[in-house]
Amino acid sequence: MERTEALVIVDMQKVAFTVARYNSDNVIRRIAALASKFRKQNKKIIFIQHNGEVDGYCYPNTEEWKIVSELPIYPEDIIIEKKANDSFYKTNFEKVLKQHSIEKLYFTGCATDFCVDATVKTALTKDYDITIVSDCHTTADRPSCNAKTLIDFYNWLWADLTQTKYKIKVIPAAEI
User: 70 CB contacts (<8 Å, ≥6 apart)?
Assistant: First the structure.
């Protein structure tokens, strides 16, 4: 039986790109192409939007809070607002997934080592069928590690995590 699928786009907001992100133009271009492909197949697109009020930035409905313009939001798309790294934490994300019978999630977004990772790990423990789009997530250089190394590390880590109901798949956009 085929599971209902959704493309999850985590925190691709203007505020995230006020600092340099690894390969960001190509990541954004590939996410846009995937979103177009999903829409043509009548699959759901879920945008996760961070509300940073607790940290004093990224307030809802401000310019920095908006999704980057290269990733247009369509009326049928779903928007989930979150206030923590994990998109499941105190949000309606899981409720929305159940309402639409979505069991298979394709993850993209920013930042690999924060919000994408936290959300992926929770989705794994909730028995979702997860695919990480290996070339459709990005992050910035960190004090102890450069962004490219972090992205490579997390792609390896996710692929090697002990499976729950499903094993996480990590594949490039061209294979989807």
Answer: 28, 29, 32
| pLDDT tens, residue by residue, 84-114 | 999 999 999 999 999 999 999 999 999 999 9
Q: Is residue 167 pLDDT above 60, yes or no?
A: yes
Spacing of C-alpha 4 from chain mean position:
17
Q: How far is CA 104 from CA 145, 146, 156, in A?
A: 31, 31, 20
Distance CA 137, CA 29 (A): 11
Please say whether the beta carbons of 22 and 121 come within 8 A. Answer: no
